[in-house]
UniProtKB/TrEMBL annotation:
Pfam families named in the record: Aldedh
Similarity comment: Belongs to the aldehyde dehydrogenase family.
Entry annotated with the keyword Oxidoreductase: yes
Record's protein name: Alpha-ketoglutaric semialdehyde dehydrogenase
Enzyme class: oxidoreductase
InterPro entries in the record: Ald_DH/histidinol_DH, Ald_DH_C, Ald_DH_CS_CYS, Ald_DH_N, Aldehyde_DH_dom, Aldehyde_DH_Superfamily
CDD domains in UniProt: ALDH_F5_SSADH_GabD
Organism phylogeny: Bacteria, Pseudomonadati, Pseudomonadota, Alphaproteobacteria, Hyphomicrobiales
Length: 477
């Protein structure tokens, strides 16, 4: 039932010209389940030509027509959610319920951007001189090069495709080679909905080869990337050199702050669910657990018990609540973070080991009293590890929360309105969620500050990143 994945260029699915393919593995078994076509420069040239043609056609299609087509793509995702969820779990490892949620969420995102695309209103600016009209038009920026990762094969791609399509741009998406088939289903949704040839193109390949070819190319006018900060800086540098607009959604290292006065049971329940969702391979996952001294032992005990109750196994088995990590690299990386933290004096409360000798499983892990020198307190772990430390005062915890160059998401639990308000103001982060997990909805901004990126992938601001503002001033004769 797992399909091989072809390239989608100029409205047609097909192999790469060289016939190159790469194996796709099931992370629950480590075995090959299919193949993905690998593009070379000849395929990229075809995609560029198609995107140029697609842009010329699509940018002239009225926003209302674009909206109607997009709504059909959203319906495709909903109608096929069960089938797509199976595909995603086979290639990515997450529990099938999470895969289904991601697929349905894509429907919501497409709907929202479709609606907002109808509202890319211009403005009239009062002139200083009688008889002069000053108008601002919003125009699509042009063909977009997009790069998306394997942790949310649909969710990272749908925000980019939806913004491009809603604003009248065309797009070449380099999807995730490890998890290609569910991302291809998203592209199929747009194709079946009636998006003209060349508007949405999908390629896979060697990431650096594709980005180094597409980003400097004169046809491409915008670059958007989701992935690590290191790669994001590389691509942003290349885009800057060639004067391309960018949206960068990069790594995070979210502080999760729990004050003495918080509802501890609620904090444990929500933070544990979000720590171990997608086996922790989430850019906005809570990472540095900073717990106020009086409730530290109580929080650690309750969080550890909740962690021990997680059922790890093949995501296709509905009884499992955490699946395999997406690939072998992550298991090695997670093992490195845990060993380093223990070597530096952290206490292991639970987990800390690989599971079995088949697939890429790692135990959900809780480390406490983790010193600031441990790598996990400084680098994005991107895995199922919660690292905890006690704190004493508000100022101390804010300074720790802001210590790193990351600034994507932050979480806090407190029953004091005054503390909540002060946190909202003082935390250096693109998103701050207090007393609940309320981020990543289509209509709200989604993005980071500092090294976590540039621009938003949610809310109306996401669309503006795909639009040029053109000023036209006209004197009556
Ligand atoms: P990686 O840094 O090599 O790759 C991360 C992503 O960037 C992948 O999708 C990859 O295809 C892409 N990529 C890498 N080099 C590229 C290039 N030169 N041009 C274009 N795309 C390129 O490593 P990885 O092992 O896949 O992931 C490791 C780290 O990446 C994680 O620890 C995490 O910090 C980060 N990451 C973040 C997100 C996110 O949602 N922000 C998603 C996936 C990975």
């Amino acid at each position: 039932m797992y399909p091989n994945t072809d390239l989608f260029i100029d409205g047609a699915w097909g192999a790469s010209q060289s016939g190159r393919t790469l194996a796709v593995l099931n992370p629950a078994t480590g075995e090959e389940v299919g193949k993905v076509a690998h593009a070379d420069t000849k395929d990229l040239d075809r995609a560029l030509k198609a995107a140029q043609k697609g842009f010329q056609v699509w940018s002239k299609v009225p926003a209302f027509e674009r909206y109607k087509i997009m709504r059909k793509a959203a319906d495709y995702m909903r109608a096929n959610a069960d089938r797509i969820a199976q595909i995603m779990t086979i290639e990515q490892g997450k529990p099938v319920a999470e895969s289904k949620m991601e697929t349905l969420a894509a429907g919501d995102l497409i709907d929202w951007f479709a609606e907002e695309g109808r509202r890319t209103y211009g403005v009239t600016i009062p002139a200083r001189v009688d008889g002069v009209q000053q108008l601002v038009f919003k125009e699509p920026v042009g063909p977009v090069a997009a790069f998306t990762p394997w942790n949310f094969p649909i969710n990272q791609a749908v925000r980019k495709i939806s913004c491009a399509v809603a604003t009248g741009c065309s797009i070449i998406l380099k999807g995730p080679e490890e998890t290609p088939a569910s991302c291809a289903e998203l592209v199929k949704a747009f194709a079946e909905a009636g998006v003209p040839e060349g508007v949405v193109n999908l390629v896979y390949g060697v990431p650096s080869e594709v980005s180094e070819y597409l980003i400097p190319h004169p046809i491409i006018r915008k670059v958007t990337f989701t992935g690590s900060t290191a790669v994001g800086k590389l691509l942003a540098g290349l885009a800057g050199k060639h004067m391309k607009r960018i949206t960068m959604e990069l790594g995070g290292h979210a502080p999760a702050i729990v004050f003495d006065d918080a509802d501890i049971d609620t904090a444990v329940k929500i933070l544990a669910a979000n720590k171990f969702r997608n086996a922790g391979q989430v850019c906005v996952a809570p990472t540095r657990f900073l717990i106020q001294e009086k409730v530290y032992d109580q929080f650690v005990e309750k969080f550890t018990n909740t962690t021990k109750a997680i059922k790890v196994g093949d995501g296709l088995d509905k009884g499992n609540t955490m699946g395999a990590l997406a690939h072998a690299r992550r298991v090695d990386a997670v093992e490195g973070f845990v060993n380093d933290a223990i070597d530096k004096g952290s206490k292991l409360q639970t987990g800390g080991k690989r599971i079995g000798n088949k697939g890429f499983f790692y135990e959900p892990t809780v480390l406490t009293d983790v010193p600031l020198e441990a790598r996990i307190m400084n680098e994005e772990p991107f895995g199922p590890i919660a690292a905890m430390r006690p704190f004493a005062t508000f100022d101390e915890v804010v300074s720790e929360a802001n210590r790193l160059d990351y600034g994507l998401a932050a979480y806090a639990y407190t029953s004091s309105a005054k503390t909540a308000e002060a946190l909202g103001a003082k935390i250096e982060s693109g998103m701050v969620s207090i007393n609940h997990h309320g981020i990543a909805l289509p209509e709200v901004p989604f993005g980071g500050v500092k090294d976590s990126g540039m621009g938003s992938e949610g809310g109306y601001n996401a669309l503006e990143a795909y639009l040029n503002f053109k000023f036209v001033t006209q004197a009556s004769l």
